[in-house]
Amino acid sequence: MSDLDQLTQSLARNLKRWRGERGFTLDALATRSGVSRGMIIQIEQARTNPSVGTTVKLADALGVSIATLLDYERGPQVRIVPEDQAVRMWSTEAGSRTTLLVGTEARGPLELWSWTLMPGDSISSDPHPAGTTELLHITAGELTLVVDGDAHAVPAGASATFEASAPHSYRNDGAGPVEMIMSVSIPPVRSS
What we know:
Layout: H1 3-22, H2 26-33, H3 37-44, H4 52-62, H5 66-70, E1 78-81, E2 87-91, E3 97-100, E4 110-117, E5 122-125, E6 133-140, E7 142-147, E8 150-155, E9 159-163, E10 168-171, E11 178-185
Antiparallel strand pairs: 1-9, 2-3, 4-11, 5-10, 6-9, 6-11, 7-8, 7-10
């Protein structure tokens, strides 16, 4: 598959996904974006490669970045943010500060959790509904995050985000406790 074919397939999949997560009909997205319903259908069916301008209009209407719309997403996506790549938003001379650890472009209910996972413990989770995203920040120890069978080491100070619609588990393979903060973003329930 060529790069252009891969891009076309990614855009088709992501446009359909984000339109669904936002609860937009084809007509609603067409109205919000100024892109015709027919063009949106062609894009979602991977039958056309839209212009950059059209892609920007769709991304803006969905409230996501162009990069998010064009992301290849080969399976469940996990993003690890090393401690030194977290974004310091502001600080004062007295030492007050805020740091954006990790973010995601999801909407709906959010849950914030504090976890302690003792050495040798492992907790497994069934897949959550499509569109559910988890964000983690490790404050002590090293978590082994397993998503769809792939293990990812997340050391203290690092953060991670992943789509939780795949089977996943949290493991402590170390000698000390793992302490972490977790946020879960759940898609809103849609009325029929």
